[in-house]
Amino acid sequence: MTWALHFSIAPTLFEPAETAGLITPFMLLYALHDALVKPMPEKAMTPSLAESWTASADGLVYEFTLRRGATFHNGEPVTSDDVKFSFERYRGISAKALKDRVAAIETPDARRVRFRLKQAWPDFMAFYATPATGAAWIVPRKYVEKVGEDGFKKAPIGAGPFKLASFTPGVEMVLDAFDGYWRKTPSVKRLVFKAIPDPATRLAMLKRGEVDVAYAINGELAEEVRRTPGLTLKPTPFVSTHWLVFVDQWDQTSPWHDRRVRLAANHAVDRQAINQAVTLGFSRITGSIIPTSFDFYWQPQPYAHDKAKARQLLAEAGYPKGFDAGDFWCDASACVYGEPVLNDLQAVGIRTKLRPLERAGFIKAYQEKKLKHVVYGLSGIFGNAATRMEPFVVSGGAFAYGGYPDIDGLFKEQATELDPKKREPILHRIQQLIHEKAMVLPIWQLALLQGVGPRVAEPGFGLIADYPWSAPYEDVKLKAK
After folding, report:
1. CA count, 13 A, side-chain hemisphere, 176
2. CATH code at 195?
């Protein structure tokens, strides 16, 4: 079964230790690796390599019992030592938030691992046991130490339903079924992931039968999928919110420092029109960077599309003729979403220049705070309102270029509150402040449009709630010949 991907494949995308604030890596992690706990068709936190876990009444100790018989692709058993090693090795999104709060990791025996926290933290499982991070995705300690970090990226071994057969960086990844996978033996025996950044090419390959699934087929091409006999269009709504980041808003010399300019930008964008044109109306306009299904979500009143209001605000801020707003950075695969936003900004006088970067390079530059002016931000990782805000809007967050004392103070306050009823108003207030400050420009909660070919019996879309890719891979099926 073959997938046409909308981005280039880089080793960081199948390395659990380096997961960024995107859902993208989990497309490959679900095939090659396995986690203690992860979203599955059963529920959002499904026992996987861990058959069970407990939390102490005071919220300070979490203990996981590992599943008997789970092995890595080289036949070695998954042990508590591997769990401890994988956590300590983790350096991806929110690694600091996790590690700063863990006092010790104990391994009483090969099947038990115990996390002791420095203080009660209500979001430990939200960060650890969902794709909010990749910290619970387990790699084999002995193998990694034997081949080294570079060797592991070249020839990764995991505990997932498929094992690596070949990898050509940027081009193709081939995986073969792992008959020893604990959950079930996969129905499809070989998965092929091809990097095809151009959407028209992805569609052409789907029509010719060269691929079975084509990701991210938007606009007119999606309509063409609908019209083509044998092909099926599958919208997959998920927890990916998109927004513009005004990274210079803390620079007093920047136009973006003025809230009126940020408000103007918010009023300039016709989100519904973009939604209809690009995702056929399947995306959701929420006015927030928090997905609507997340715990502690607060619904703002989205800023209305009003070009006259936008121009008025710019004039009040001292820019009656608009201004040159510099670069508009985005992941290259997000250009189809970013360009209409850029055009709407341009229409009211906010002039920017599109600067697409290959996905891995974009994430690295974004996280290292090297991007200036405007950034097209997005995240599709799981969690709750707190886990989504921590990397993006709180001072010191992995992707935060600055912060505000009132938001930072409230975030610190909620982080130790174990009572959900007391946490909720604090987290709602933070979201209200983000909205009132026009700190970001929320665009939508995305629905990806996927094309599925005639050979596919079960593409795996929607089996896991709020997840956009095919999964679990051991459940996907092709039609019998």
Report:
1. 6
2. 3.40.190.10
DSSP strand pairing (232-246 vs 374-379): antiparallel
The strand pairing partners of 329, in sequence order, are: 355, 375
Q: How far is CA 215 from CA 125, 134, 190, 221, 239, in A?
A: 30, 23, 18, 12, 16
Tens-place pLDDT, residues 290-336: 999 999 999 999 999 999 999 999 999 999 999 999 999 999 989 99
Domain end residue (candidates: 91, 108, 141): 141
363-415 tens-digit pLDDT? 999 999 999 999 999 999 899 999 999 999 999 999 999 999 999 999 999 99
In terms of Cα–Cα distance, which of 466, 14, 66 is closest to 239? 466
Of 236, 200, 286, nearest to 448 (Cα)? Answer: 236
DSSP 137: B
93 has a pLDDT exceeding 90: no
What are the φ/ψ torsions at residue 151 (nearest 5 degrees)?
-65, -35
Question: So what's the pLDDT on residue 243?
Answer: 98
- The verdict on pTM exceeding 0.85 is yes
DSSP-assigned states of every residue in 46-87: EESSEEEEEE-TTS-EEEEEEPTT-B-TTSPBP-HHHHHHHH
Q: Does one domain contain both 433 and 367?
A: yes
Query: Which residues, 6 or more positions from 339, have their beta carbon under 8 angstroms from its beta carbon?
Result: 354
Question: Is the residue at 472 inside a domain?
Answer: yes
Count of C-beta atoms within a 10 Å radius of residue 69? 9
Which tokens go with 220? 């007119």
